[in-house]
Specification:
alpha+beta; 3-stranded mixed β-sheet; single chain
Length: about 210
């Protein structure tokens, strides 16, 4: 059974193709060629499926349109496109053979830890954070940063190395603001925007993969 609906995103109409079959155990969603394709169990309600699409559509579209921070010729580091030199990439004044993105992040964690930590310590001082945080850098793709109250540590994603210093700082400011407010309340964002006046612009660049 195939049904067709549509949704909108940024004032643009996007078709939804819903395929219902007994063999499907759960609802799955893909975005391809500017169309949503849904596979769902045969007796799934249309309203349930459409709500599922509405909840997931923004993230899927952003991920689909996001420009990768690397290609076969080079990679973005701190907002600048750095070409490979006979297969090698310069990281913090050292040359590494570029094997794959996972290996790249492993080297980044080692070579740029002091850089990330210096930015963290700078904003701890600026924002009046009186208990210094421990820094962790991990190869995570779903988030840019997190603040752990139990370990008093801040984790930053290694993928931040692709972005400009301004955008990295906006993530650090966001996580340090959680030192004062654990939620994302109005008071929380007042702290964030006090120290990052163009926070919304920075956040938009991070989400859309604009590296500088």
């Amino acid at each position: 059974m195939v049904k067709y609906f549509f949704t909108t995103y940024e004032n643009k109409k996007i078709d939804i193709e819903i395929n219902k079959e007994m063999r499907f155990r759960r609802i799955t969603l893909r975005y391809k060629n500017e169309k949503f394709i849904v596979n769902a169990p045969l007796f799934s309600l249309d309203k349930t499926i459409l709500k599922f699409v509405e909840d997931k559509k923004e993230k899927l579209i952003l991920n689909y349109n996001k420009k990768l921070p690397y290609d076969e010729k080079g990679i973005y580091i701190l907002g600048e496109y750095i070409p490979f030199n006979e297969g090698f990439i310069k990281i913090n004044d050292k040359f590494y053979l570029y094997k794959d993105i996972k290996t790249f992040y492993k080297n980044v964690k080692k070579e740029y830890f002091d850089f990330f930590n210096s930015r963290l310590k700078l904003y701890e001082k600026i924002m009046g954070v009186n208990i210094p945080y421990n820094l962790r850098i991990k190869e995570v793709s779903s988030i840019f940063g997190s603040n752990s109250y139990s370990t008093h540590s801040i984790t930053l994603s290694a993928k931040l190395i692709h972005f400009s210093v301004e955008l990295i700082d906006s993530v650090i400011i966001h996580e340090l603001a959680h030192h004062f407010y654990r939620d994302h309340s109005k008071n929380f964002y007042s702290v964030v925007k006090k120290h990052c006046l163009n926070y919304n612009e920075c956040r938009n660049k991070l989400i859309h993969g604009v590296y500088k």
